[in-house]
Specification:
4-stranded antiparallel β-sheet, Alpha-Beta Plaits, 2 domains
Length: about 140
């Protein structure tokens, strides 16, 4: 048994779940999460045209309520917004792990920052609370 954790863009959720169902993966837990990766999050200069590209710190801009003005007196070197993602938790015993990983990558790969991450973890045991079944029988 393995657990696959996949961070994906939110707009790819339906397509990803359908592709997983097509290969036989129907048990998926979906979490709505926020975070930032290698790109450092959504830098405000991408969201707010008033944000100078060479800013050293966040300063208040009083013209109108923009993401820059909401940053206030932040001590971040570059103000960022957390990037919204979906985290899929999938426990696999029957469908080959590589097939699941390949499917998630095929649907979500655009070649741009923010496509996501996939983590494959060993799973020691699983228990079905209702029946007390353990191992593979508990996840099928």
């Amino acid at each position: 048994m393995k657990e696959i954790m996949a961070l994906i863009r939110r707009h790819k959720l339906t397509e990803t779940l359908q592709a997983l169902a097509d290969i036989g993966v129907v048990s998926v837990t979906v979490h709505s999460v926020n975070g930032r990766g290698k790109q450092g999050g959504s830098i405000m200069e991408n969201v707010d045209p008033e944000m100078p590209k060479d800013i050293e710190y966040a300063s208040k801009i009083y013209t109108s309520p923009t993401p820059s003005s909401m940053a206030g007196d932040s001590t971040l070197t570059k103000p960022v917004f957390w990037v919204p993602k979906n985290l899929l938790d999938i426990v696999v015993s029957e469908v080959p792990i590589e097939k699941v990983v390949e499917t998630i990558m095929r649907v979500n790969r655009s070649g741009k920052y923010g496509d996501g991450k996939i983590f494959v973890l060993p799973l020691r045991d699983a228990l079905r609370v209702r029946t007390g079944e353990r191992g593979d029988a508990a996840i099928i």
